[in-house]
Amino acid sequence: MSKPNLPATEAYSHLIAQIEQTVNDGRKRAVAAIDQSMVVTYWHVGQHIVQYEQNGKERAEYGSKLLHNLSHDLTARLGGGYNHTNINYMRMFFLEYPILGTLSPKLSWHHIVEILKISDPLERSFFMKQTEIEGWGVRELKRQKKSLLFHRLASSKDKAGVLKLAQSGQIAESPEDILRDPFILEFLKMPEPHNWHESHLEERLITQLQQFLLELGKGFAFVGRQYKIQIGGRFFHVDLVFYHRILKCFVLIDLKKDEVEHGDIGQMNFYLNYFREEENTIGDNEPVGIILAREKHELVVRYATGNINANLFVAKYQLYLPERAELEQKLRAILDDEESGN
Q: Residue 63 falls within a domain, yes or no?
């Protein structure tokens, strides 16, 4: 079919853009509707299996055989999607979430499968809620699970804080809520510090900005790198500057290859005072400063931050994924100590 000769007017271009946007939006809604339909369907499949078992129609020792037989027969009748593993997840899905209405419609079946793989109920609850809050795709969810985000956030809280984290997720209500100590930067694929400089770390973070924003958490918007400020005829540069849309404040990040020094803390306080006076506009809250260092000495940080800006934090970063056993032990100590009344 030949294309008629129509004038390439601005109105016609706008019409094309409108139609394209409408079709794309419709496709997204269709995919979301299919995903949600799949979640509801598989929940009901799990319900049928559990009710069959509970009615005594299948003895417990034959449970595994039941799933095997179901997989064989349902695949023959319905096609793909009903292998033994998937059917087992459908059964688990109903057992873990017997009230379907409590689940967010934002979660796809693939999200739910990834969450069901988590054995600890507190961690599972956290990732269920956080996936909804952050709008993670399945790939992002897998990465955050692997980086042990729940354990990293929980390790700085008391028992009540851990339980709230598991129930409600991490919501940015104060500057402390945006901290993750340590921050995990394994996606940079950098060797342990030896012959590279902070500028190399900064360059990699900018190159992998999308991944870095995922690690920082919801609400961060990138403003600039080596942000130049002029004071007293001299120029200074802040490594990375972000704006947090939820807290409504600038977030300044200074990168350190090795251990943080007291002078680094004084420098960040200097930057925060400047941003408060010169960069903030009506509606902006106090700026937040985060020094990201490979190591930190707690006493140095304590004495250097005493009686200065309350929104100045020192956090560690790691270039490799954390050890689960170490973080699990720390989390268990928090819960056990409070249970024993210590």
A: yes
User: Looking at this protein, which amino acid is placed at residue 31?
Assistant: V
Q: CA 239 to CA 201: how far, in whole Å?
A: 10
Strands 234-244 vs 249-259: parallel, antiparallel or unpaired? antiparallel
Residue matched to tokens 């409590």: 102
Check if the beta carbon of residue 316 is closer than 8 Å to that of residue 182: yes
Per-residue pLDDT tens digits for 262-309: 888 889 999 999 999 999 999 999 999 999 988 877 777 777 777 777
DSSP string, 108-131: -HHHHHHHHT--SHHHHHHHHHHH
Has residue 257 got a pLDDT over 70? yes
Please indicate, yes or no, if residue 66 is contained in any of the structural domains.
yes
pTM, full prediction: 0.81
49: containing domain = 10-117
Residue 193: phi and psi, rounded to 5, are -55, 130
Residue 3 — φ and ψ, nearest 5°?
Answer: -85, 125
Q: Which residues contact 300 (CB under 8 A, 6 or more apart)?
A: 260, 261, 262
Of 91, 117, 143, at which residue does a domain stop? 117
